[in-house]
Amino acid sequence: MHGLYAITPTFEQCASDRWLMAQTRALLTGGVRYIQLRDKSCDQPRRLKVAKALRALCAEHEAHLLINDDWALAQASGAHGVHLGQGDGSPADARAALGKHALIGRTCHDSEQLAADAVAQGASYLAFGRFYPSRTKPHARPATPALLTRAKARFNPPLVAIGGVNLDNAEPLIRAGADALALCQGLYGSSEPESVARAFTLLFSVTHKQDTP
Ligand SMILES: Cc1ncc(COP(=O)(O)OP(=O)(O)O)c(N)n1
Ligand SMILES: Cc1ncsc1CCOP(=O)(O)O
């Protein structure tokens, strides 16, 4: 897993489902590799409908759909995986339900211990952050790029950095060891989503090239 990872705004923050699909299509065209449906509503029929539509859109772009919190919705919609916070059940249970190829992400906040637990439970990637103040999740625990560097040396699964990331502050996270960057506001909040996604793709490749001896 590597590259750009887009997190949808919640349904109440979306202008409409049509807007969500158009914005997601533009992001995928610009090179986003992973989409996470992050909605906190209890509107199960709408959640399933949107998840299936996003799944179809991802298939057109050979991208992956993950569902936040809810592996049952991932299963029902045919998504590629699930992202689990610390209160969302165990990665091992999600793995048993979704199978060995599923992408199962785990929130590790600022903690190597949580990351070690996630690895032991079979997580596919480790998510750290927030790295910068986030309007999407203002009370998320802060983490520093040095944690990414330590985690890179210690753990095998890819590392995802999240929280307040934008084009101006992303480079230190890539240099510190982030394999993927997860953004909500920086991508879905843009009026030029395709161009922003392309600029991130370029940033990844330039930064990796500069770091290769
Ligand atoms: C890629 C990624 N990393 C972290 C989170 C945060 O997940 P969680 O701790 O479950 O918090 P909520 O997103 O549910 O508010 C994430 N969603 N995605
Ligand atoms: C879900 C989540 N978890 C930690 S920060 C965050 C929000 C990410 O959104 P943004 O990129 O808008 O800060």
Automatic annotation (TrEMBL):
<feature type="binding site">
    <location>
        <position position="68"/>
    </location>
    <ligand>
        <name>4-amino-2-methyl-5-(diphosphooxymethyl)pyrimidine</name>
    </ligand>
</feature>
<dbReference type="Pfam" id="PF02581">
    <property type="entry name" value="TMP-TENI"/>
</dbReference>
<feature type="binding site">
    <location>
        <position position="69"/>
    </location>
    <ligand>
        <name>Mg(2+)</name>
    </ligand>
</feature>
<dbReference type="GO" id="GO:0009229">
    <property type="term" value="P:thiamine diphosphate biosynthetic process"/>
</dbReference>
<dbReference type="InterPro" id="IPR034291">
    <property type="entry name" value="TMP_synthase"/>
</dbReference>
<dbReference type="InterPro" id="IPR013785">
    <property type="entry name" value="Aldolase_TIM"/>
</dbReference>
<keyword id="KW-0460">Magnesium</keyword>
<protein>
    <recommendedName>
        <fullName>Thiamine-phosphate synthase</fullName>
        <ecNumber>2.5.1.3</ecNumber>
    </recommendedName>
</protein>
<comment type="pathway">
    <text>Cofactor biosynthesis; thiamine diphosphate biosynthesis; thiamine phosphate from 4-amino-2-methyl-5-diphosphomethylpyrimidine and 4-methyl-5-(2-phosphoethyl)-thiazole: step 1/1.</text>
</comment>
<feature type="domain" description="Thiamine phosphate synthase/TenI">
    <location>
        <begin position="4"/>
        <end position="186"/>
    </location>
</feature>
<feature type="binding site">
    <location>
        <begin position="36"/>
        <end position="40"/>
    </location>
    <ligand>
        <name>4-amino-2-methyl-5-(diphosphooxymethyl)pyrimidine</name>
    </ligand>
</feature>
<comment type="similarity">
    <text>Belongs to the thiamine-phosphate synthase family.</text>
</comment>
<feature type="binding site">
    <location>
        <position position="137"/>
    </location>
    <ligand>
        <name>4-amino-2-methyl-5-(diphosphooxymethyl)pyrimidine</name>
    </ligand>
</feature>
<dbReference type="GO" id="GO:0004789">
    <property type="term" value="F:thiamine-phosphate diphosphorylase activity"/>
</dbReference>
<dbReference type="GO" id="GO:0009228">
    <property type="term" value="P:thiamine biosynthetic process"/>
</dbReference>
<feature type="binding site">
    <location>
        <begin position="134"/>
        <end position="136"/>
    </location>
    <ligand>
        <name>2-[(2R,5Z)-2-carboxy-4-methylthiazol-5(2H)-ylidene]ethyl phosphate</name>
    </ligand>
</feature>
<feature type="binding site">
    <location>
        <position position="88"/>
    </location>
    <ligand>
        <name>Mg(2+)</name>
    </ligand>
</feature>
<dbReference type="InterPro" id="IPR022998">
    <property type="entry name" value="ThiamineP_synth_TenI"/>
</dbReference>
<dbReference type="GO" id="GO:0005737">
    <property type="term" value="C:cytoplasm"/>
</dbReference>
<dbReference type="GO" id="GO:0000287">
    <property type="term" value="F:magnesium ion binding"/>
</dbReference>
<keyword id="KW-0479">Metal-binding</keyword>
<dbReference type="InterPro" id="IPR036206">
    <property type="entry name" value="ThiamineP_synth_sf"/>
</dbReference>
<keyword id="KW-0808">Transferase</keyword>
<feature type="binding site">
    <location>
        <position position="107"/>
    </location>
    <ligand>
        <name>4-amino-2-methyl-5-(diphosphooxymethyl)pyrimidine</name>
    </ligand>
</feature>
<comment type="function">
    <text>Condenses 4-methyl-5-(beta-hydroxyethyl)thiazole monophosphate (THZ-P) and 2-methyl-4-amino-5-hydroxymethyl pyrimidine pyrophosphate (HMP-PP) to form thiamine monophosphate (TMP).</text>
</comment>
<keyword id="KW-0784">Thiamine biosynthesis</keyword>
<feature type="binding site">
    <location>
        <position position="164"/>
    </location>
    <ligand>
        <name>2-[(2R,5Z)-2-carboxy-4-methylthiazol-5(2H)-ylidene]ethyl phosphate</name>
    </ligand>
</feature>
